[in-house]
């Protein structure tokens, strides 16, 4: 094993980071996926839709830097994209937009001799690449929707949210086969704002992201902070979300009851307090995420931070088993990460290993090493000084 | 970390459960009629990440009782594994509870003390102290005197004044707004007005502490001085 790329793991943090890296999308796949969707973007720019200035951009975990590997290594990464056309809702019906984008994606697949034709989903087109590529792309056709969305927020009395131009300006109208107006010309389209959500999410860890980018510059890897690509730096918030999603996946294995990623991501981002280490971030997040679920009457709310009218937990009243599954998962995650972070790294609890999956765990296990026991015997002085530095040096008393 | 102020016992239980899961996974958390009980093995982790990777540096069997209104009410801590003698020299009260510090001072220093703060702060420090005592024969951060003298010591450090019961009492009276500044008699009992008597001593100590912080001190002090 190359010592430069795989240094020994000596602390809980080292192990957690190594696990998060093991489930992350590898750099070469990230770059390959980026060049593939940029190629689709180029095709669209030169297609029959060129008059609408089509743009392809990542959304969801690809945009947030929280992509994780599927449980089964043989499965593909899921790359979520938005294809936005500069047109209005009088130009297209939802069905028309979906079909127009679909035609061009089909043409792209044909021109590139792709084996499988794009598949139509409820909202997106799925482009399946060859097995070697290890990813597929879900492309969501969309139109800009900032003015309708701003008016909607104002009408609902969300003046502050409506005034956040840097967020609202990214609102999009999307298509949905199950929408009542799917086939008719209408102003009433489903709305989404993945880029606005990413702006909010990034604001929650921007300081730590900046600090980490500066470190890379100081290490001489890059000339200046702006040169550091976002995907080359991961904050404890992003790593914690990756680990929590993996824990969820291994617990629910694709069940419909599994807590959805956007709920985990939103609650984690709300809870994160700028911790610089992954173990500290995980403790804070797992300790606090429950407190960011609001009780509104009988309904639980996980509010979309960029659309106060949207409840990410809106399925819970109809499917109480999903609400129960969320709390069951959270308690299990607290237990499993808590036990790992408080025990010796050389013998983690079996529950933790299976939560991370044995195959992933085995990728990092052989790198775990600990300091010599002799170091412990001489550590009391340093330990006492550390207590004094952290203000834990309380004096006992007796009444 | 959530604030426990004014929370119901059930909320306290939920916060304690989360804190235990993440910080002390071998403590069981249960809800009884009048308190939340944390019982089991308390681990003292090392602050050095590489040593923490070996596991806890010491472990103790404990029972911690958190009463309604925590942190406004004082928690009770018991060592249940017989790891050290239960006597004043090992900072164990006559009722068998462990004395990990003067609660009202700990609370005044950190009014929003959560269960996690308590486990990771004074209780961890107390058991680390015992581990140090066992290994090195002394308390790592020193210890407060027993009884009222220790209380005076602790109050004086918190208030930033001399270890003089009269000054402390007067200062707390002042800070607790139990008097009207210009008409109040001096608490030293001389019969003179404060401004004509001990005011000069009191002016020498910091006056920026919020009166809410010293209220619990005032309450305990009354028990000792009246």
Task: Give the strand content of chain A.
Answer: 5-15%
Largest sheet of chain A: 7 strands, mixed
Span between termini of chain B: 38 Å
Measured between the Cα atoms of the first and last residue of chain A, the distance is: 60 Å
User: In CATH, what is the class of the largest domain in chain A?
Assistant: Alpha Beta
What does the model show?
The complex is a heterodimer of chains A (399) and B (226). By secondary structure, chain A is of the alpha+beta class. Chain A is 47% helix and 12% strand. Chain A has 2 domains: 25-193, 2-Layer Sandwich (Beta Polymerase, domain 2); 234-371, no CATH class. In chain A, strands 1, 2, 3, 4, 5, 6 and 7 form a 7-stranded mixed sheet that branches. In chain A, strands 8-9 form a two-stranded antiparallel ribbon. In chain A, strands 10-11 form a two-stranded antiparallel ribbon. In chain A, a hairpin with a 2-residue loop joins β8 and β9. Chain A is globular, with a radius of gyration of 24 Å. The termini of chain A are far apart. Chain B has 2 domains: 9-136, Roll (Ubiquitin Conjugating Enzyme), CATH 3.10.110; 157-225, no CATH class. Chain B is built from 8 helices and 4 strands, in the order αββαββαααααα. Chain B has a 4-stranded antiparallel sheet with strand order 1-2-3-4. In chain B, a hairpin with an 8-residue loop joins β3 and β4 (76-79). The two termini of chain B are 38 Å apart. The chains are: A alpha+beta (399), B alpha+beta (226). At the A-B interface, α11, α12 and α16 of A face α1, α2, α4 and α5 of B.
SSE layout:
The complex is a heterodimer of chains A (399) and B (226).
Chain A lengths: L11 H12 L3 H19 L9 E4 L2 H4 L12 E8 L9 H18 L7 E2 L4 E4 L6 E10 L1 H10 L3 H5 L1 H4 L3 E3 L16 E2 L1 H25 L17 H17 L8 H11 L6 H11 L5 E3 L2 E3 L1 E2 L2 E5 L8 H22 L8 H7 L1 H8 L8 H4 L2 H11 L9
Parallel strand pairs in A: 2-5
Antiparallel strand pairs in A: 1-2, 3-4, 4-5, 5-6, 6-7, 8-9, 10-11
Helix pairs in contact in A: 1-9, 1-14, 9-10, 9-11, 10-11, 11-12, 13-14
Chain B lengths: L8 H15 L3 E5 L3 E10 L4 H4 L5 E10 L8 E4 L23 H7 L5 H22 L10 H13 L5 H11 L23 H5 L7 H15 L1
């Amino acid at each position: 094993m190359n010592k430069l790329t795989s240094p020994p793991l000596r602390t809980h943090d080292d192990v957690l980071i190594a696990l998060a890296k093991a489930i992350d999308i590898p750099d070469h796949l990230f770059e390959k996926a980026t060049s593939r969707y940029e190629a689709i973007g180029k095709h669209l720019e030169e297609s029959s839709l060129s008059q609408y200035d089509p743009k392809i951009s990542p959304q969801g975990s690809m945009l947030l830097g929280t992509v994780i590997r599927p449980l089964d290594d043989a499965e593909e990464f899921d790359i979520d994209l938005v294809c936005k056309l500069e047109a209005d809702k009088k130009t297209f019906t939802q069905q028309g937009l979906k079909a127009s984008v679909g035609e061009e994606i089909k043409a792209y697949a044909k021109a590139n001799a792709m084996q499988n034709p794009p598949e139509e989903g409820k909202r997106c087109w799925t482009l399946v690449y060859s097995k070697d590529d290890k990813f597929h792309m879900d492309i969501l056709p969309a139109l800009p929707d900032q003015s309708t969305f701003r008016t909607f927020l104002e009408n609902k009395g969300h003046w502050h949210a409506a005034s956040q131009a840097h967020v609202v300006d990214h609102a999009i109208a999307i298509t949905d086969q199950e929408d009542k107006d799917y086939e008719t010309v209408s102003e009433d389209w489903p709305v989404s704002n993945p880029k606005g959500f990413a702006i909010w999410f990034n604001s929650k860890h921007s300081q730590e992201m900046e600090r980490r980018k500066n470190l890379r510059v100081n290490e001489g890897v890059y000339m200046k902070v702006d040169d550091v690509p976002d995907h080359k730096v991961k904050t404890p918030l992003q790593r914690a979300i990756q680990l929590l999603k993996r824990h969820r996946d291994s617990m629910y294995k694709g069940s419909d009851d599994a807590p959805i990623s956007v709920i985990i991501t939103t609650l984690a981002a709300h809870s994160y307090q700028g911790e610089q280490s992954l173990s500290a971030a995980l403790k804070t997040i797992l300790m606090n995420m429950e407190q960011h679920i609001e009780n509104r009457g009988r309904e639980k709310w996980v509010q979309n931070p960029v659309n106060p009218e949207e409840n990410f937990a809106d399925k819970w009243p109809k499917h109480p088993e999903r609400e129960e599954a969320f709390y069951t998962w959270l308690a299990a995650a607290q237990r499993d990460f808590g036990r790992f972070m408080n025990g010796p790294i050389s013998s983690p609890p079996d529950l933790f290993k299976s939560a991370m999956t044995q195959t992933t765990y085995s990728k990092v296990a052989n790198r775990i090493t600990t300091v010599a026991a002799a170091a412990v015997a001489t550590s009391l002085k340093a330990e006492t000084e550390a207590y004094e530095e952290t203000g834990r040096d309380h004096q006992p008393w007796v009444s | 970390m959530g604030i426990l102020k004014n929370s119901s016992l059930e909320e306290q239980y939920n916060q304690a459960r989360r804190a235990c899961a993440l910080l002390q996974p071998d403590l069981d958390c249960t809800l009884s009629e009048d308190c939340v009980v944390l019982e089991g093995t308390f681990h003292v982790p090392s602050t050095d990440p590489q040593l923490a990777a070996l596991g806890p540096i010491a472990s103790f069997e404990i029972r911690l009782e958190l009463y309604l209104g925590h942190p406004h009410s004082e928690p009770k801590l018991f060592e249940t594994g017989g790891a050290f003698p239960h006597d004043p020299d090992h900072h164990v009260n006559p009722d068998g509870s462990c004395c990990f510090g003067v609660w009202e001072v700990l609370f005044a220093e950190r009014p929003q003390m959560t269960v996690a703060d308590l486990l990771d702060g004074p209780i961890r420090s107390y058991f680390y102290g015992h581990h140090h005592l066992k290994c090195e024969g002394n308390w790592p951060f020193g210890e407060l005197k027993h009884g009222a003298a220790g209380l005076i010591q602790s109050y004086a450090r918190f208030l930033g004044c001399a270890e003089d019961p009269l000054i402390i009492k007067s200062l707390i009276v002042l800070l607790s707004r139990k008097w009207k500044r210009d008409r109040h008699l001096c608490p030293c009992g001389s019969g003179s007005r404060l401004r004509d008597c001990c005011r000069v001593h009191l002016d020498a100590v910091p006056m920026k502490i919020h009166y809410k912080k010293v209220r619990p001190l005032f309450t305990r002090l009354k028990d000792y001085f009246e």
